[in-house]
Amino acid sequence: MPSEFTGKHVTVAGLGVSGVPAAKVLHGLGARVTVVNDGDDERARTQAAELEALGVTVRLGDGDTLPEGTELIVTAPGWKPTKPLFTAAAEVGVPVWGDVELAWRLRGLDGRKAAPWLAVTGTNGKTTTVQMLASILKAAGLRTAAVGNIGVSLLDAVTGDTEYDVLAVELSSYQLHWAPSLRAHSAAVLNLAPDHLDWHGSMEAYAADKGRIYEGNRVACVYNVADRATEDLVRAADVEEGCRAVGFTLGTPGPSQLGVVEGLLVDRAFVEDRHKNAQELAEVADVNPPAPHNVANALAAAGLARAFGVPAAAVRDGLRAFTPDAHRIAHVADVDGVAYVDDSKATNTHATEASLAAYESIVWIAGGLAKGATFDELVTGAAKRLRGVVLIGADRALIREALARHAPEVPVVDLDRTDTGAMLQAVQEARRLARPGDTVLLAPACASMDMFTNYNQRGDAFAQAVRELGA
């Protein structure tokens, strides 16, 4: 039992996926734990009862007041830095950690070797890349798991019974903000685009929190050659001596890069004499699906794996074994010569831009909650690929207006409804617009909560509507 937690009064801010495990772990380490939570709903009361049975104090309905005697706060990642709880903590010098910071500090606590972290962040593609990375590491015979923002608790990974050789860790900008001590073996920033600016306050602050993932890296900082902002974060990072900048590109790679040559994924970073030599890793066809942005994800995963010493054959085998999660540019069916693709996970313009770039002739189904986004740049870039557009959701007018400005010749169907049944009509209208060889693409560029519980339900509704077409 570590002396730094024994008897220490720790306040856990927030219940849920991160707060409950944090409270349990800290209580088990001998801390005096108080949990504070803004909500007081049925789920919160159930979680509170579970913790109180262990001897943890829980205070529901007031997440803003600092409990007396608090010596440390461990917060859920989504709690904004501007909350009064944190202001009060700063005034009295109480440190604030996230659950990732706590997990980092608890590595190897029971005497086992602490597994290194290969960490991934970015505006889009994090989960897919981490899952690809874990598949590659497993193909190399390593004990590993995909953990973190992917929905698997890092605390469980570092304090559980399973011993790992290495962890594939997805980290959000929220988690990185609250993880000042994190020092990964190697890390990647996949891309940067405006997101969560209401939480961070500015694009500069958002980028700075993303860039924390590179701090103290030992072997490699993997960046996106096509996104200069990611390379700028590498340049600004304070890394260990000998740590290298390694780029990934969809073009021909230069020295210290991974890229694509004649349908092959190749490595010119982790080879002898990288100025003259290259190592074949896999074929583009080994990536599922082989859309450009997904090939970029595969290259980033390969870069991290190679930084850890994984052989080329394991990269190929791991990519072949990888199956993407649902609703990520997933082919649903072909009906009358038209492909129907579900990318409901494309909830912002950056993700949708990548999705639209994967196909030549598209009937685009879009709309939902815009979250403050604008669509002019997205429409301008995609205009030549659009056969037609079907709009749904609360903020569809914003996309319609962008289409009128930048693609006035593209036929647009504007469905003035926000009920879940609108998806069936949207698919029927898309079928009417499509021609053989086209792709009907659900890539909404918006959040789903105006019409659906989440993007999963939205994607399921699309897939069901497509199945009814083919019935």
Describe this protein's structure.
By secondary structure, this protein is an alpha/beta fold. 35% of the residues lie in helices and 19% in strands. The protein has 17 helices and 20 strands. The strands form three sheets. A nine-stranded mixed beta sheet has the order 7-8-6-9-10-11-12-13-14, with helices on both faces. Strands 15-16-20-17-18-19 form a six-stranded mixed beta sheet, with helices on both faces. Helix 16 crosses helix 17. The model has no long low-confidence stretch (mean pLDDT 94).
Helical content (DSSP H or I, runs of 4+): 25-40%
- Trace the largest sheet across and list its strands: 7-8-6-9-10-11-12-13-14
Task: Sketch the major β-sheet.
Answer: 9 strands, mixed
Which band does the percent of strand residues land in?
15-25%
Measured distance between first and last alpha carbons? 62 Å
Structural class: alpha/beta
Number of strands: 20
Average predicted local confidence, pLDDT: 94
Query: Mind telling me the C-alpha Rg?
Result: 23 Å
Shape: globular
Contiguous low-pLDDT stretches (5 residues minimum) are: none
Put simply, the count of helices is 17
Oligomer: single chain
